[in-house]
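To: structure subgroup
Subject: Chain for Friday's discussion

All,

I'm putting the inputs and outputs inline so they're searchable in the archive.
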Amino acid sequence: MPEEQQKIVRTVSILTRRLRAGKTYEDFRRAWFHTTGFAVKGKDAGSGRAQLLTFINLFDPREIIVPGFATTTLEQLKDALDIDVNVRGENPLDEVIEPAIGRSFTLRVAEDDFSAAGDIPYSPASIDGRKTDMAEVAEDIRTLATIYTAAAKKRDAANAARKQAR
């Protein structure tokens, strides 16, 4: 495998959806729940991981926020996005959520633990004790933006075909 495919990236996708009037979180969960995994665990380059957390907005209980945390190679990320596009295309949420969806796709550049009491000295951005190289981050952002854009085009084409078939 080329070196860039073995590189581990840590991404977070944040999707914000609003329940249709009369729909519940359980309605959303039944329609949204992924019964197919993203196939990243146990692959060659490190410990691939894809974890989604679900939150309900305290001030607007119809708003559902799902951040997805992934630790993958670039190739694993592409494969996982293809799986997501296929699963979501086969299991649309149209009946449960309003059409507008907020989407943010991010690259983790630092982890900081502010749990201690008292003063905490400044430290440069790092992950797992490794200082973050911001030039590398800029390159990763360009690469990841290309990957997510390609997945969005596939998703939009699948949604358009599904809606046209109705």
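Points worth raising on Friday:
Residues 3-110+127-165 form a domain with the Alpha-Beta Plaits fold (CATH 3.30.70.100).
The chain has one domain: 3-110+127-165.

D.
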